[in-house]
Amino acid sequence: MRVLLAILLAAATCFAQDFTQRGFLENLGTLYPQDAKKDHTNTIGESLFRYEGFYKPRAALQVAGAIDLRIDTHQQVNRDLKLSWSDRELQRPLAEVRRLSALYHSGSVSFEAGKQFVRWGKTDILTPTDRFAPRDFLEVVDNDFLPITAARLTYEKRSNTLDVVWSPRFTPSRIPLLNQRWAVLPELPPGFVLHEANPDFPGGSQVGVRWNHVGNVEYAASIYEGFNHLPSFEALRDLSIRRFYPKLFMVGGDFAVPTPWITVKGEVAQFNSNDERVDDYFQYVIQLERQSGEWFFVGGYAGEAITNRGTQSVGFAPDRGLTKTLLGRAGYTIDANRSIAFEAAARQNGDGTWVKFEYSQALGQHWRATANLTLIRGEPGDFLGQYNKNSHAILIVRYSF
Amino acid sequence: MKQILLLLFLLQQDPRQIVEEAQRRTNAQSQRYEGTLQVVDAKSKITEKRWQYDRIGSHGSSKSVLRFTTPAEVKGVALLVVNHPERSSDQWMWTPAINRERRIAIQDRSTRFFGTDFSFEDLEERDTNQFEYRLVGNENIDGVDAWKVESTPRQTKVSQYTRSILWIRKDNYALAQIENYSKDQLVRRAHYTDIRNDQGIWTAHQIEMHDLKRNSRTILKIEKLSYNVPMKDDNFTLQSLRRES
Predict the structure, then answer these.
(1) Scanning A190, A309, A323, B189, which has its CA 20 to 30 A from the CA of B34?
(2) How confident is the model over A86-117, as pLDDT tens digits?
């Protein structure tokens, strides 16, 4: 709570020419027409208030702060009245520091420390090298990025950028709640209830280095040593499960090549772990992009090859679940205020399909309404197909300021 | 004196000289303004946006950053344009909501920029060296005599437009209008009005871009304009897009 007061106080006292702010209040309603096996709730409401402030006491220094305040009808949001920094909770926190960082830059060097977002990679449909970007996967297919606590040093000289990131404290991705529809669990004998033991969060830090070149062709190479932000599970003797986050070493690269007709983007990454329980694997993504008039098209394929199979490879891995998959997105801007978009993912074996249609319209200078329909079909054994009871419709009304 | 007048007359008849003189007269180390955009669609519905524009460097190798300030939902969205004398510009768009920049490929530059009637290509600099010119006549525009010059992009310049007609005022060499053609069809018209002398540079304070295919118009009003403002080169990089988000 003291951090929240500090942010608000800073915002109030620094309100000057060097202070900018933005934010929104969003109300979201979700309708699931079908019951899931253990979740019979068909309608969910959620409200999110996000406030971001930026203060520049000097040209070379910027302090950025942001908070999220949420509430919902389905206990996806924790009811504890405390301000979260760590993002390690099972549920979304009621109040959360989304960003609090200081950024200093001098000439070619920038340094940012604090809670922030770090995004690597170039592809959109799956981003294997984006290792400092955990996500909130409570509703698996409608996910959002989580910030991390990190120090980031960037050196930019002409066409080249060197980015060094050190994160002293691990931020895991938030996974579906065990008692809700997005956690699809194996059948248990009657009378048995699956419990989750306290997770085993790793204590060490994470570090990564990325070199990026910008020219007619853009390319980057990156290495990362840390932990997988997506958990693996181990079964304990008392029939409970425990999340653990295996050590991860990644070497990867990404590129973007504009051609006269399309832009080709790609990413490759090799993931190794010294934890023999989990797989070592190689991922690649190839993506084609084109904008034409008011249309944009993105299409691609994500693939994976296991290079060393682990002894126990049960985990929650949407990144791996979306490999061996064809993915596409198309959008059309109707006018200055209205747009439509269509996204789809189809597993190459035909066992899972996800289709999303979205219509969005601005209403005046501050309001926007967005409606989307998501259809999921497939076999229970497939990553996408297992959510075949979770097709849904969402209506979002947002007021931005 | 007669020789000077004759030389001036000849210079004025050479379309490249006319365009180069128009460009020379707008030379400045940097430029900053706040722009208000009114997008008027075919049904006369008006949407308003605002951006701040910063430019550094001379013609041909300038860099500019355009950052939306309103409406609230696009606040912080920014476009970095790095112009090159020998080829088309590089452009990247920064979207704060996803914390990533996206390169705008050359083949995508015909797309409208964020719901306005300006395409991404319209926001890059028209360097004289990237076009061939032909004087096609003289015409009175907005009550002022103007040269009418046809420009066609050279092979090194990738453009959605096959040719453009420029109206350049004879009294102050300010650009008065551009008509852009795709094949033989007029697709966009930019009309420059409210031309004022700012720090010795004749500058249009209102640009109306008319998309004739969609029959929609965007009126850009330029406010708080200043030239030769101290700016740093490192504020025109990909990192600066992220820093200032």
Answers:
(1) B189
(2) 899 999 999 999 999 999 999 899 999 999 99
Domains of chain B (ranges; CATH) run 2-243 (2.50.20.10)
Q: Are residues A116 and A237 in the same domain?
A: yes
Number of structural domains chain A divides into: 2
The domain in which residue A352 lies consists of 324-401
Q: pTM for this structure? A: 0.88
The answer, for B38 touching chain A at a CB cutoff of 8 Å, is: no
**A300 located within any domain:** yes
Summary mean pLDDT of chain A: 92
In B105-184 the beta strands, taken as DSSP E runs, fall at 131-141, 144-153, 163-169, 175-182
Residues of B in contact with A365 (CB under 8 A): 48, 70-72
ipTM metric? 0.84
Question: Do both A114 and A235 map to the same domain?
Answer: yes
Q: Please write the tens of the pLDDT for every residue from A72-94.
A: 999 999 999 999 998 999 999 99
Chain B stretch 66-105, residues whose beta carbon is closer than 8 A to a beta carbon of chain A: 70-73, 75-76, 90, 98-100, 103, 105
Task: Give the end of a domain, one of A298, A322, A346.
Answer: A322
Q: Give the pLDDT of residue A202.
A: 94
| Residue in A closest to B43 by C-alpha | A335
Domain identity same for A269 and A330: no
Residues in contact with A58: Cβ distance below 8 Å, sequence separation at least 6, in sequence order: none
Q: Which of A295, A322, A349 is the last residue of a domain?
A: A322
- The span from the CA of B32 to the CA of B30, in Å, is 7
Contact B243 A107 (CB under 8 A): no
